[in-house]
Amino acid sequence: MLSCLERNQDPERAHEDYARVLLMVAQHGDRYARRLFVQQHTDVLGGYSAYLLHLGDGDLEAVFHDAVLSRGGVWPKTLMGLRLALPKRLEAQLEDPWKAWRALEGYAPGGLEIDPVCLMFVDPHDTPYVARNAGRTVYFCCPHCLESWETRRATGGAELRFLRIQGEAGSRA
Questions:
Q1: Listed residues 76, 103, 130: the one ending a domain
Q2: Whether residue 92 is found in the same domain as residue 29
Q3: Could you list the residue range(s) of the whole structural domain that residue 54 is in?
Q4: 166 DSSP 8-state letter
Q5: What is the DSSP code string of 47-98?
Q6: 143: nearest Cα among 163, 115, 171
């Protein structure tokens, strides 16, 4: 899984990690998670991100579900679904634009959490970087974020930013 330390990587790996997070958000995210995903990926979505953020919550959810049809080898039905599944700015760098989706055919995200340090999406079933705070479990994308959070917490300088997202019943605290 992609960590905040691996953002500058080869295009094939970047697209697979992008698609993995897209699947997590589509399956487990709520309206806040979908909007955060689009905002975090404006660099690859380009002008499509402004259009996506302008959509209503129901329409944006439909675009996410349309985009993940790619995992089953089906082309998305809409232009926005296609551009979300295969961002134009990544497409030109990829030898096989659909390779990432084929690689994720069996992937089933176990949930969705957000790293409180870098705000990256984390599958709680895939990350070994976990801490407990005030009876809550906190998930991190990499050892650097976990160490940073533990250091700030030990010195009393860390206010925990929780964004717990689980489907439409999710809550932001």
A1: 103
A2: yes
A3: 4-103
A4: B
A5: THHHHHHHS-HHHHHHHHHHHGGGGGTPPPSSHHHHHHHS-HHHHTT-SSTT
A6: 115
Which pLDDT score, from 0 to 100, does residue 132 have?
Answer: 86
Amino acid at 143: P
Q: In sequence order, what DSSP letters do the residues of 114-156 get, joined into one string?
A: E-TTT--EE-TTT---EEEETTEEEE-SSHHHHHHHHHHHHTT
Q: Is the pTM of this model over 0.70?
A: yes
* Pairwise CA distance, residues 154 & 10, whole Å: 36
Supply the angle between the helices 31-40 and 57-67 in degrees, to the nearest 10.
70
Q: Which DSSP category does 8 fall into?
A: S
Note the pLDDT tens digit of each residue in 40-62: 999 889 999 999 999 999 999 99
